[in-house]
Structures are given as structure tokens and as C-alpha cells.
Amino acid sequence: YLHPDEFFQAPEVMAGDILNLQVYYPWEFLSSSPCRTVVFPLMTSGVTYWVIKCLQQLDLWSGCINSYTLLVSPRLLFTIFSFILDYSVYQLAPFWEADPWKALVLLAGSYVTLVFYTRTFANALEGLLFALLMLLVSSRRSGGSSKEPTSSCLIAIVTVAGFFNRPTFLAFALMPLLYWVALNTDSPRSLRAGINCFLKLVPCACFTAAFFIMADTWYFTSMRLDNIYGFENKSLFDIMAQLSQKIIVTPLNFLRYNLNPRNLAQHGNHPRVTHFVVNGIMLFGILHILAIGAGFKMLKKYIYILPRVKSYYRGSSRILVHSDGNSMLLLFYFFPLVFLSLFSHQEPRFLLPLILPLVLFSASQNRAERWKPVIVVFNVLGALLFGCLHQGGLIPCLFHLEHLMHSPESSNHPGHYILLFAHTYMPPRSLLNIKKGDTNIEVIDLAGSEEETLCQTVGLRANNFTCSDCHLFVIIPGTVRSTITKCGVSFKNETLIFPHLSMEDPPQLSFLFSENWRSQLGLYIFHLDGAQ
């Protein structure tokens, strides 16, 4: 479990809308603050959930809606989509003077590709759209001959779609777009020609934006909240007239929220150099360090020769065209990195799209060849840490609870279940497979609450059992297991799920070398029933 957004920005929302399950709607998808487009969640998780719903309704696969299919089906679709990256690298490598197979090995061996790009992140979609844009703007064959001019309409569609997916896409798209303009500008009066080139993007860009705006407006004001806005028993004309009074442009709401420093502070403030000195190394390891070294060399070189180059080419746009491929790839890598570093909230996943220019740069001139052992060890450890250990017990825990609550025995004798989570990431309710309107199951998320709050809540729930079929489950990491023993409640049994690593409550190294080391790397499920 990498980050709550892998569930709460698509699968959780679609499970509630399409499968009619009890879910937790994040604030970005509330009608009062719509900051995320619904188009991509519908096209990804929505499609997969609609398919398994149809399979069950047609009796082609009875019981196919369960916690496993709810988790795996969207991830499987994202895994298939991730091969867009492989295709893009293979096609782009000759253009950027890199060996295609060495670039593919770097990409496929990266734990970022194996772990992050197979999860339902909007950042992963951002990376795929960036790869498509790079393909579209690279308009020369590896042999040096010219292609037919790339369709400006496709470039406009991908750019606008990326902007609606995540407005930060413009930071990734700007340099490739300027490079495309430079490639297609032969006039000495480059400014006017460049403006004309950008104007070719406007018609398709407007059409694409209109599509996203209409879809989001319809979803946030009609599909989700028809009982509030009163759309029932109205004609299509009346509905469209009412919708026109509340046009929703989700990227503008996203920008309005994130440009407010107080809002960003709620999600955590980081030093401005976090992307450079922490996140880049965490994701890409030695490749990021090599890129920084090459970036400093390039900067020193261009500061020295820029005046002569500029006078020779008579226009800054031509400098982009005549720059060597390595310099351009570094520009594609560092410009978004610098831009994203201007904001105080910095998470590693924000840099996912940068794997494409970094792999192409590292595969050229055999830069990564001598560092092969370091790269292999780094990615094996990264895949183990983020793909297996990090919050790794929470999803199996939800599988276990879903199976327990929907077992034949529980179906014949339904009881009341209280699921209390503490010191874990936010549990996606959809994986519990609870239908809307089912009041027999209650989920409480105490997040990182203090010991006093946890004990008060557990004691209150345990002392207020009103039936013999009531069940209280408390889910906490092994590193805070001692907390629950101080609450004065005797649990019927406990289940350990291994492995589970909580970086918010990390294990002490001394305990990892003791006999009880598994408990430090596990997630506990404590059970108390009404009979007790």
C-alpha cells in the first residue's frame, strides 16, 4: 500500500458509484469542492468495475465481486497501460541516440515501473500521457530523415487531457511543446511562426476541454447528487439549462486550492530541495545523481557558449533544435523538477513521469553501464520495500475481514461488526465489499491517534455491546501493540498478518534482532465479541 491516493482518487469512488458499495468519498470528489476530473477514473477503474458487474449480473461469473477482484482488476488495467512506456522508450531511443534495448532494460528493471506504474495513481496516468506527448513531438526518424508533420490535434488532445488529469502536467509538457514548435519553425521571425504553431493547437484543445468540462459538470451536479439539485422528473432541456448555471472546471479548482499555502500546509510542508536531494534519489537512485552531475556540466558549458550560439542562430527557438539530444533530455528532466520544487508540498510520486527522459538519457553513451550492480541492488531493495513491506499488511487484513464477514456462517447468522483501524493508512472501504444501506458493519479510522483516544474509543465500544453477535476488531501495527494492552480490554484472540512496515511508527532496530522480530513487522487484528 503505497499511498491513500492510489485508492481514493479512482477505485474507491467508482466502487461507490458503479457497484453501489459503501465507500469513503474524498473531499476532491465532493460537490462542494470538485478538484478531480471524473473522466479518467471512469475510463480506468470505472470500466473494470462495470465489466465485473456485468459478469455477475449475467451469471457468467457468480461471486466475482469480492475484495480480490476489486483490488486486482484496476491494477491489471494499469499494468497493461504501463506498456505504453515500453513502447515509447523503444520508439524514442534511436531518436535520442540511445540504445533501445538498454533503455528498455533500465525501464523494466526500475522498481518505479514495477510498483508505481501498476498502481491506480493519477501520477502514473500523467507519466503515460507525458510518454505519448514525447512520441508526438519527436518528429524525426532515427535515421535523420523527416516525418510528415505530427498532427497538432493529437498533441492538443494529449496536453489538455494531461492538464485535466493533473494540472501539473503543464510543467512536464512545456519543454516538449517548445521543442515541437522549434522543430516546425523554419522562419527567421521565429516568434510569429511559433505563435502560429501554438494557434494550431487551439481548436482541438478547446474541443477536448469542453468534453472534460461537460463530463465533470454532469457528474458532480447530476449523477452523484440528483436528489440535492432536483433533477428527477425533469426534461433533458431543463437539466441542461440548470447545468449551464453551474459549470465545473476541476483543474481551476485544483489550482485555486493548491496555490494557497495554508491548504498545502495541511498535507505537509517540505524543504524546497526535497525533490532534488530526497525524492529523486528515492525513486531513481544513481540515475538521478548522474543526471545532476551532467546537468551542472551542461549549465557551465551553456553559460560560456550561449552568447555566440544565440547570435549564430538568430533566435532562441533554433537553439532548442540545434542543441544535442542529451542536453534536451536533461532539460525535459530538470525543468519539471525545478517547477515542482517551487511548491512546499513535495511527494515522491509527483516525479513519476520523469522516468522517461531519465531512462533515455542514462541509456545514451552507456552512462549506466558501469553502475549496473548498484542499479540492480537499488531496484531490488526498492521493490521489496515499497512493493511488499510498506503498509503491506493492511490489504491482506481487509481481505481477511471481508472473507470473515461474508462467509456462509456469517450470512446465516448476521451480526454487528465494528472495525477500528489505528496507526495505519486510511483503509479503502470498498475492499470490504459492504453494500450501501448495510448498517451491520461500522468502520472507524482513528489514523495516528494518541493512546488515550484509542483506549477511550475501544473501551466505549466494548462496554456498549448490545448483542451477543456483536464483534469488535481492532487493527494496529505490531510496533504499537503495547498500547492496546494498556486499555484494560481482554480480547478473545489476535491474528498477526506479516509483513507490515509502518514508517510512521517504525520498528526499533534492537527489536528486529530479537525473537519477536515478526511482531515488529506485522499487523495485528484483535477480536472481541459480545459473549465476552
Automatic annotation (TrEMBL):
Alphabetical UniProt keywords: Endoplasmic reticulum, Glycosyltransferase, GPI-anchor biosynthesis, Membrane, Transferase, Transmembrane, Transmembrane helix
GO terms (BP aspect): GPI anchor biosynthetic process
A GO MF term: alpha-1,2-mannosyltransferase activity
Membrane topology, as annotated: Multi-pass membrane protein
EC class (word): transferase
Which domain of life does the protein's organism represent? Eukaryota
Pfam families xrefs: Glyco_transf_22
Asked if the record carries the keyword Transmembrane helix, the reply is: yes
State the protein's name.
Answer: Mannosyltransferase
Q: Species name for this entry?
A: Nothoprocta ornata
